[in-house]
Amino acid sequence: MLSTIYNCFDKMIKCLKTKKENTQEAVKFLKDASWFDDQYQIGKAGVKYVLIPITDIAKKTKILSKFKGTIEDRNLVKIVKKNRSLKDAVGNIIPDKHIDKINRGYEVIGDIALIEIPDEVEKLEKNIAWALKRLHKKVNVVVKKGKRVSGKYRLRKNLVLAGENRTETLHVESGVKIKVDINKSYFSSKMGSERLRISSQVKPKE
Questions:
Q1: What CA–CA distance (Å, rounded) separates 139 from 113?
Q2: Mean pLDDT to the nearest integer, 46-51
C-alpha cells in the first residue's frame, strides 16, 4: 500500500503561477511534456492563483505561451512517498502501457539497476532512469540494457543513464559477495536461486 506523508522543505521550487481555473489543463499539459514535478504539492498564491511545480528541464517559454502567468521560485510542500512502485515513479512520464514492459525487464544487481527501455519511449530514457534511481535509495547507477547479446559469453553493450559512470558492482546473495561488471560478464540477479541450487550439489573435494 502506498502511504504519503507531507512535509515542508526550505528549498525553492520552480513553479508556474497561473489562475486557478487553468489548474487542470496546465497539469495535464505539463504531465504530457514530462515537466510536472510530482514530488511537490500544488500551492496557492492568494485566492485567485495556484503554484504548479515544474521540473528543471521544463521549457518556460513554451509553458508561458500556452498559459498566462509567470514562472517563479517558491517554497512548496514536498510529498514524501513510501513503498512506491515503479508505476508511481514513472507514471507521470510515460503511458501505462509501456510501464509493464519496463517492469518485466528491470532488475537490481548490487547497487546497479538494469532496465529495458521500450523503443516508443526511448527519448525519455534519462527521465525514466532518474525516476527509478529516486525510487531505490540503495541504487547508485541506472543502466540501460543493450538490445542484443553477442559473442561466446553472450554479452550486451549496456549504457549508463543516471548516477555514477560505472558498470561494476558488488552483488550479495545467499551470504556470498560477488564482484561483477555487467558489461564484461553475463549475470542476472534473477538466477540467484539456480546458482544456490547448483552450489548445494557440490560435494566435498569436488
A1: 6
A2: 93
